[in-house]
Specification:
Length: 377
């Protein structure tokens, strides 16, 4: 498979912090297959093409006419054939980037894609139709797979998110100087209590200072210069955090989720870094299956004015905390590295695993072995 995988990346035109996870997946896939990566370059041209395609498609009802009338974004012509085309999209609105490689289906024996986040009531059908040429579609949220399959007319499977465990795993005796890490969406009540506690007790509370955004002022997003550097920084922070507040996706926006609990990336990151995760976990069988070890997430209500008292009580159980930290890293290394998602994709498509994949599996087993708890006397 060396040099026989083709990636299509948005990293040159889409630099929101939330998209760094998709780029980490791309980097891991490239490292395990020595893939070629084509980067979309002209955001303005691509967006103009998408808008023309959208309105022509909706007005005429014809995908063929829309494809003819929409101006082509800068093209990335392929010079050779590939075994697999595997573009990774952070959301479904990025799918129009496929038009930048017009001959991808002719040049690639197999084709699959991964959409990190797409919600069933926010699916741009005119773009999902573009996936009809793929052999298989993978999505990072569980509930939307049947709808994507219906629109595209192709098999669609849930592929859980993951993390670069080799990057996030701490040293076995890692010192954790950050008492609590609370990034992304947060409860104002819990945050205020932690601020007061940190001031009173002089512990290190790490949190975002970026302004809340979005129409409902419930998001905390920003742009990054280099996605890899950002992922390195997040790994370093979590490796040094004792507690990590991790909640289900869009926990502070129940109107948006409408009761559809999904697993956010925070759980994979926190587990791999060996932090003790506290918060409101997804209330789903899928979450219970993926995070089925004791205390994977210690339940703490989203709004917790008594958060400092809760954490103080946990601090009184050091043996429990050590067991949680070790189990989190061990389970992440054996189950939630990007390697295992790539293996699942290859197995579904009938593609042989690479030597680099087998070598990574060995390294992950070594990491897991470093966090085995000694047998009880």
């Amino acid at each position: 498979m060396e040099g026989k995988v083709l990636l299509l990346s948005q990293r040159r035109i889409s630099d929101l912090v939330a998209f760094c996870l998709s780029y980490e997946f791309e980097d891991n896939l490239a490292a395990m297959t020595r893939a070629d990566r084509f980067d979309v370059q002209d955001r303005a041209a691509l967006e103009f093409s998408r808008r023309v395609y959208k309105w022509t498609r909706l007005a005429s009802g014809s995908t063929k006419l829309a494809g003819v009338l929409a101006p082509s974004p800068p093209q990335l012509p392929l010079q050779r054939d590939y075994e697999l085309f595997f573009p990774i999209f952070s959301n479904a609105y990025q799918l129009h980037a496929l038009t930048a490689i017009p001959d991808w289906r002719k040049r690639c024996r197999k084709a699959a894609c991964f959409i990190t986040e797409v919600w069933a009531d926010d699916i741009p059908e005119y773009l999902v139709e573009l996936l009809s040429g793929f052999d298989h579609i993978f999505v990072g949220l569980h509930h939307c797979a049947p709808q994507i399959a219906r629109i595209a007319g192709r098999p669609c499977s849930y592929l859980p998110l993951a993390v670069d465990v080799e990057r996030f795993a701490p040293k076995p005796e890692q010192q954790r100087s950050i008492a609590v890490c609370n990034i992304g969406r947060r409860s104002a009540t819990t945050h205020a209590a932690l601020l007061a506690g940190a001031e009173r007790e002089r512990f290190f509370y790490y949190y975002d200072t970026v302004a809340a955004s979005g129409s409902n002022r419930k998001e905390r997003t920003f742009r990054v210069d280099n996605p890899e550097e950002h992922r390195i920084m997040i790994a370093n922070i979590l490796q040094r955090s004792r507690y990590f507040i991790a909640n289900r996706s869009h926990v502070n926006n129940p109107e948006f989720t409408a009761g559809r609990d999904e697993i956010s990336a925070r759980y994979y990151e926190g587990a791999a870094a060996g932090a003790v995760m506290v918060g409101e976990a997804p209330r789903t069988e899928e979450f219970a299956r993926q995070f089925d070890w004791p205390d994977a997430v210690i339940h703490v209500p989203f709004d917790s004015p008594d958060i400092c008292q809760i954490l103080e009580a946990l601090n009184a159980e050091p043996a429990r905390l050590r067991a949680v930290q070790s189990a989190n890293v061990r389970e992440a290394a054996l189950r939630h590295d990007w390697l295992y998602r790539i293996q699942a994709v290859f197995d579904i498509l009938g593609i042989v695993h690479t030597d680099q994949m087998r070598a990574r599996a060995d390294r992950l087993r070594q990491i897991a072995g470093s966090f085995e708890l000694p047998a009880a006397a």
